[in-house]
Protein 1
Amino acid sequence: MAISTDDSDDSYLWLEDLDGPEAATWVRERNAETVAALTGGPAFAARQAEIRQVLDADNRIPYPAWRGDGYYYDLWRDATHPRGLWRRTTLDQYRRPEPEWDVLLDLDALAEREGENWVWGGVATLPPQHRRCLVSLSRGGADAVVVREYDLGDRAFVADGFTVAEAKTDVGWIDADHIWIGTDLGPGSLTDSGYPRVVRRWRRGTPLTEAEIVFEASTTDIGAYGWHDLTPGFERDFVTRTVDFYRSESYLLTGAGERIRIPVPEDAGWDVHREWLLVRPRTPWQVGEVGHPAGALLAIRFAGFLAGDRDFNVLFEPDDRTSLDGYTWTRNHLILTTLTDVRSRLELLSPGESGWRREPLPGVPVDQESCVVETDPDRDDAYLIASEGFLQPATLRLGRVGGSVETLKRAPAFFDPDGLAVRQFFATSADGTRVPYFVVGDPAAPAGPTLLHGYGGFEVSLTPGYDGIVGRGWLAHGGTYVVANIRGGGEYGPRWHRAALRAHRTRAFEDFAAVATDLVSRGITTPAMLGIEGGSNGGLLMGAMLTRYQSLVGAVVANVPLLDMRRYHRLLAGASWMAEYGDPDVAEDWAFLRDYSPYHNVRSHERYPPVLFITSTRDDRVHPGHARKMAARLREHGHDVSYYENVEGGHGAAANNEQRAFIEALSLEFLWRKLDPSAEAVPAQRIRPEEWTPASGEARNIAY
């Protein structure tokens, strides 16, 4: 049943006017208040400086991308190049402590020349030469990008090349003279979620508006896109209609103009590599006499599957403790990453005449968390893996199936780990579910300031990783850091996610509250010294904790948060998340959304912990109106609320390292003041001077 869409009772709707004069004045006033309150002392300057050192460190690992031409590509940002250098080098050079890099595009020089604050948005190169590129550039870090064709030989944008105006564009190469494209071409070209609805095949030298329309989705879908498989000998084209966040329909396009449906379940993930099709069902899938559980991974030859074969090879099946985190192809092999109680394992699977052979992936340490950084599935069976832990900086290794494994790079340490430990505990949630969480800190320390991070949505897993900013800004000063693996995430596969979907969202909040309670019960912290933080969907979690479990925590930081569950689907990309949260215009859905919507549950008589909201005017994914309106309503009721809105930065809230260092320092200053109010300066640091110089460090932040 539909409900009224009248929002006349929302007295802060005017704050959704992104650049309206009244809203802009309100933002400037709130920013000035927060900056004056938090940035005036020596502690803030010291925090900002140490974070900036981490972000700009010269010897952090330049994590490379492989594009099929043998080069190691990288986008590098530092104090001299805040917007970044897109560059490449050879393997022999990359092995050196200071490789010689070939700069392909200097974004700082480009921004100065064109008078734009360009932020790198990605690049697609055209095999096999990889000379022609489709470069995406964002103004200030927004999701919307400008696409421009670039020539790596000439180091210049191509005159009269493929160029697309600023929009949320999906684009990819077909061949040197054709690309797949979906973009904003005016009324009817976008879905309600703001993504491309129409897929076109665009030929070089012709107007984009005249490009051939190949496929169209519904306005109520999330979007549609086309893509070309460029694998030599397996060239083929596909189009996909994304029905909602978890359901889609995909088609193979034939040379004869046919559109053949890929007959997998709508909510299943699938992938083709050479002759193979992989299917990853999100819900149980009955195939004839055989049932496949949610979270499994199945393999079959693609041509045979289209012809009716359903005799799958089962490559993975989950159990109560183990889930599939991901997979990556080399040319002839498949690397599986699984999680057992949120600890990773990498396996190598090899197809053969008698089935798939399985063995551990060489070069993976057993005492750290590892992930696949890169493979080159068109060229060979090489792979890059990174291994790290909460207290172990990353090590990057190069392996080759059947060959040796070598260490290429090691990240330097930011802080002294002596006396610190990583422990895993399980809290018991309201319905009896065991919820894992990691505690990083001094196990012998008395109850003290503790920072608890969570997300709990969209089947995203939070796994252990070395975080230079948290290490320098929190652990090194004596704080304890905690990561909660609550439901809604993917730590135990689709079932863990579905448990907190739509009407069951409050289970994620209950899990997080259970972890907070368990931390106090174990003597790790007290409610007054427990800070919590999260961003985006994690910002919704923070809002729910603030309004539902306020007695459990001492301070809250919510980054680019989602908070108004009545209007979220009408703001920017919000309509694309209704499969996750529900439809507020349906009475049955609004009943459970209204129950927890943070914006609708602010009360004047409650005693809320102090809260800091951080967002960006240029966030075109989660509208800054969420944070603006929540802050205004809390102020109206007399609560302790701080607010900072960066003028750029997109969904990351920062467009460069300077902005990010400021925002991170702002959060840490707020937390230290609220959780340890007796501290008037930066607490003593656990740093070995011989291990730290301003030019060293590595930042890999799992908090966003």
Protein 2
Amino acid sequence: MDETAFPGRLPERDRPWVMRTYAGHSSAAATNALFRRNLAKGQTGLSVAFDLPTQTGYDPDHELASGEVGRVGVPVAHLGDMRALFDGLPLADTNTSMTINAPAMWLLALYGTVGLEQGADLARCAGTTQNDIIKEYLSRGTYIFPPAASLRLTADVVAYTLREMPRWNPVNICSYHLQEAGATPVQEVGFALATAVAVLDAVRDSGQVPAERMGDVVQRISFFVNAGVRFVEEIAKMRAFGVLWDEITRDRYGVTDARQRRFRYGVQVNSLGLTEAQPENNIQRIVLEMLGVTMSRDARARAVQLPAWNEALGLPRPWDQQWSLRMQQVLAYESDLLEYPDLFAGSHVMTALVDEVVTGARVELDKVLELGGVVAAVETGYLKSALVASLAERRRRIESGADVVVGVNRYTETESSPLTAAGAGAVEQVDPAVEAAAVDGVRRWRADRDAAVVDAALARLRADAATTTNLMPATLECVRAGVTTGEWAGALRQVFGEYRAPTGLAGATGGGGEPGLVAVRERVTATARELGSGRLRLLVGKPGLDGHSNGAEQIAVRARDAGFEVVYQGIRLTAGQIVAAAVEEDVDLVGLSVLSGSHLAAVPAVLDGLRAAGRPDLPVVVGGIIPASDADTLRAAGVARVFTPKDFALTGIIDDLVTVIRHANDLP
């Protein structure tokens, strides 16, 4: 058989997608070295992870940045950091994706300035700023400003790049975190498209882009999606995305060129489904999830980045990221996937699945638009409540065994894994000295600049923010003056204010009337009665800048279902705020959720605060991605319980919380 003449084969292989790994930690210099190693291994694009202070507009020496600097990404506090990050990497020839949202304008201005310093033509620079602020109110929590002001910043970036950086994707509509927060495929498509409509409406209504150029805007809008392990369903979801995007951009915005209406997306496959238990199973999960966005040629991702097998344990090492890169390379270069046209064209099964997702997503999109658009749906809490409820239902199915997770709720017998034999050595460790160096660095940067020039630049930024002027020119002036990330965001905070998004807990339920929950509810009632109080009170706290609140919200929902009165004030709290709430609300237990790796700084700060407030007796429990050795350290410091991703049974966790309260109060 002459395989090269096979009639179903393409005349030549498709070009593979852009291959990335999501990378950044410790410092700009360390991340630059990591970028160089990854590119040498065959990675074809960069995907920059920024640390939480950078993402939320704080400098390394801010109180809220304590314990967070360099942990989940690279700290970039000023132009000097951006120079170090891309030192020796020609930006004109490097496709760079930056996962940055609220301060996207600022980071793009830093990036473009470094490009110009390198002699690059900005019109040649290609890449993406994520810049989808809506999903931050719903899932990741790295928002700063109110929704309307945030959309204004996005529209300003779109208008600027259209003129100055036409190959740049100024916004990356991000449904990835919607799925992480609980969205079904139908909700993921519907809610993401509602966000895209809000962005395009904001650009159109800003008056900065002529109507005849909306097609040019549309063709630079990209999406960043999630792909779960149900890869057949994921293929249908991606094809449905394309159908609806083509329809919306043609009918709502009058884009007549079909090439401009093409659905363009990158993907990070699902991290939520990765398990701490039997983590070797994550390898096959990642491969199956990758198939969901590569198998269908007509709906294939333009760029792919894969998580590492040990992300449920901590920060991946370079070797772990290399393994994930090699998965992509084997699929692209060893398999025959890229040699064929779309494998699902004409499939009755796929057509029916796509139609089902399209129909459901249209309903969700129409519902959001009827509410007044995605901003109104955020401010009323509709979107957040829908996601919390969907995630609660997903957790219920896993706990009941209706959804099987191998190694977690079925087939749990296992051999010892050589991959995790090294314990904490199986993940990247961030040197605590990194934060001290960053703090010292930003203070020296401030001391070495012209204060009058800085003040003038910030004054212009505040003045322009109070009008409808595009803020990119003032931001670029701030970059050149030596303004820091925290100062830029602080100036806009003064004009726009800050925002606290709805928590979405109202009306959400989790365990229903399952027998286990009924028994726990009886224990809660009995314990409250023995303590002489009406109800047990639980404070759920999110210290520091970690905005991944899904776990905290699910604990809050299940605790409330069990009869607790739950105090939950949302994300991004100082230790002092958590302690004050615990004392003022007279709670029986404090539960802290930390997923950023800052637990060894954030948790002792709360314990110290409780002692200073005269409540050393108040029990504290902690949940998060916490290595075993760190868990021992926290327990030695006085933490009553430490929960990690392997503790998936929420009702069991709530039962344990009752036990902690009883023990703290000397009840049998």
Protein 3
Amino acid sequence: MSRVLPGRRWRPAALGGAVLALLAGFLVVTGVTAAAADPLISQGRPATASSVENAGTPAAAAVDGNTGTRWSSTFSVPQWVQVDLGTTATVSRVVLNWEAAYATAFTVQTSANGTTWATVHTTTNGTGGVQDLTVTGSGRYVRVNATAKATGYGVSLWEFQVYGSTGATGGCGTTNAAQGRPATASSTQSAVFPASAAVDGSTGTRWSSAAADPQWLSVDLGSTQSICGVTLQWEAAYGRAFQVQTSTDNATWTSIYSTTTGTGGTQVLTVTGSGRYVRVYGTARGTAYGYSLWEFQIRTGSGGPTNPPTDPPPTDPPPGGTVRLLSYNKPAVASTSQNDGACWECTPARAFDNDPASRWATAANTGWVDPGWIYVDLGATAGITQVVLQWDPAFARSYQIQVSPNASTWTTIYSTTTGAGFKETLNVTGTGRYVRMYGTARSSTYGYSLWEFKVYGTGGNPTAPPAMPPDPTFPANRLVWSDEFNGPAGSKPDASKWTIDPGTGQNNEIQYYTNNNNANMDGAGSLVIEARRETAGGRDYTSHRMNTGNKFHVQYGRIEARVKVPKGNGLWPAFWMMGADFLTGRPWPYNGEIDIMEVLGRNTLEGYSTLHAPAYNGGAGYGQKYPAPGGVDLANDYHVWAVEWDSKGMTFKLDGTTVFVASKATVEATRGPWVFDHPFYVILNLAVGGDFPGPVDGTTPFPSRMLVDYVRVYQN
């Protein structure tokens, strides 16, 4: 939930010494959203409207897949917003996610030409909120035409979703095959705008290039695939002339689309080609700035994978009984190191502590220069077979791996001028007591920074790192902890299992969490967490939050809860976990956060599962928004949310259906270090208001109740 418990303070993470403010919002993914039968066909398509309230509420915001952006009209009726599906489609379902300024009377219409309209739904008693409409019709254009409004403002939609099927796709899938895949670029404006931001599924992060021509952005799909569609969501700095190109080897390129009259905005392109690599190659900018993409999406002829493919990474550590991690907790020396408010105690030792949430960085005052270096003393002569570098966004574009018998005379065993950052696993051959990363060209104006620098081989004088617990085998079936909430009506949560956590929330939430006043057993086998409109702690609303900190911690297994969520604008139920080292002083997000379930009361047809870490958190967290399986309303009954977690990653499930997969290898290769291989504790809470769920209003029911049938943890 990207929230910090009362009494704890946290410091924003830094990128190569530059402070990056941590966002309090959440990732909204544009990749996978589907109806029970037909796919979503409107997302990212061109949209127009009768009017807009201002430049910050354009028509495109209603079809961008982001429930934090909206279209809003001027303060009169009639008003309309329409989407161009690109080809004639059979429309089966329309979902309207209204902002507080909703329409009481409106029609949903289809058209073949954008001029003559046929009505497929009409109402004169619209209630706002989320309206899920079953319709029957066909057309290239679909619009909502509002004729009466509920407030003194105009009409406003967070999202306008059209589901159906098109006859012109020719088997082209709807899944974004580029999401989460490794991406590279000709340049970046700064470390804040990396190539990976264009394929992370978040329309709140972007890649931005240097202000020169030409520039390119490339994504590796992992295998050769048939490419049939590309969507480019440009920032204001767009490409006037550009090509979309494919390659099988990342060297020879074939153009499958070309234009000299690009207009920016969202461009949905139908293309034909094949390749493992796909890139946008810009030759003329639309502005004086560089090129910038919020999202670069690719659709494949096979429909694309349900989850991004993950190439098998080089074995880490390498195979062989005599090969060991040689660098753990060994003495280290660097050209400079940073120790200030932006990167506290970022000393050389941090790169060798086997802790992916701590890092070394060169000093901001003297170290943001070339060359920059760091080396480790292995304690004795060793045979080096592999080096693993987990870079911060301040990475080396050109560097060498060197070995030495005396830390004075160095021999190069690996060299590159095309370093891509993130995780680089290098199979090398060399002999020496000392191993050095020697950077000669930085990727940005910042310095050099490594979360982890691991050296594997034989010999040396290694110290074994702490042993990890064994991976569970799923389905795990040994119950190791649970609370069934079977107490008598009115009884409180079991104090031997739960710590009550009173106080105010984060993210501009408006509730006060009371000291156990808002939680009771219902006598029928459920815990009731109740949000009320009442004054306490200086707030006008109260609710409840509790956790298992210092009473139950777990690393790996299946963690699940059966929950019935409340419906209503501004309500925010959650089932989540925090790294247990938070309780001993490590600040968020360095401890890691696992959001197993979040639902927004304004739209209980979908849920969220998200990971937060130093390199991806808040609005840039690594996660997924997904529809409820079968299109059900999650507020109408109990549902089981679960995460199956081991050393290779996490699989999130809702009622047994996989809704999101977080592969450790993919995250390390595309987003940053994986900080989830340590104990976590469980949290349940119901928040009110704030940046993510939005405000409560006159339709929000109080009291509102989150019902928890059980929480269970399984291992083998």
